[in-house]
Write a structure and sequence with these properties.
It is rod-shaped and about 90 Å long. It has a domain of 99 residues. It contains four helices and four strands. By secondary structure, it is mostly helical. Helix 3 runs antiparallel to helix 4.
Length: 154
């Protein structure tokens, strides 16, 4: 009982300290009036400074992940299904399947369920990504305040 009370007190104390740190953090960043970007965003090549993400890149990455995992499950399911066997049980009159066959069929179903949407996401995401990149390969003229800029992206 003592350890439960002690654990609760430590948790409550940690929440109070965390809350004070959050207030200090917010007050500091509001007083300096500067924009901070997370280091996670700086490492990503697809996120610009204003938070804009390249269209289709996330869909393409998700689709490729689903396709690879689904393909591995599908192939593994084929292998396990081919190694599995069924035996006739004379007491019940039914055929009984072993664990390999049951796991193989399950892997086939799950693998197919991941493979088909993965291929669709990957192709649609690549299409959106390529369309955006083609639009960016052009001559642009921008006016920002008193400055004019002419840029060619390739």
């Amino acid at each position: 009982m003592k350890s439960l009370v002690l654990g609760f007190m430590l948790l409550l104390g940690g929440l109070v300290v965390h809350g004070q740190q959050a207030e200090y953090f917010l007050a500091y960043h509001q007083s300096t009036a500067r924009t901070t970007i997370s280091p996670m965003l700086l490492k990503s090549e697809s996120v610009f400074q204003d938070g804009f993400k390249i269209p289709g890149e996330r869909m393409k990455r998700t689709g490729s992940t689903l396709t690879v995992i689904g393909g591995a499950l599908f192939i593994g399911g084929i292998i396990l299904t081919s190694q599995g066997s069924t035996e006739y049980d004379p007491y019940t009159g039914y055929e009984v399947a072993d664990e390999k066959l049951a796991l193989g069929v399950t892997m086939l179903v799950v693998g197919t369920g991941m493979l088909v949407p993965g291929i669709i996401f990957w192709s649609k995401g690549a299409k959106k990504y390529n369309r955006y990149m083609e639009q960016q390969q052009s001559l642009s003229f921008k006016v920002r305040g008193p400055a004019l800029s002419l840029a060619y992206r390739f």
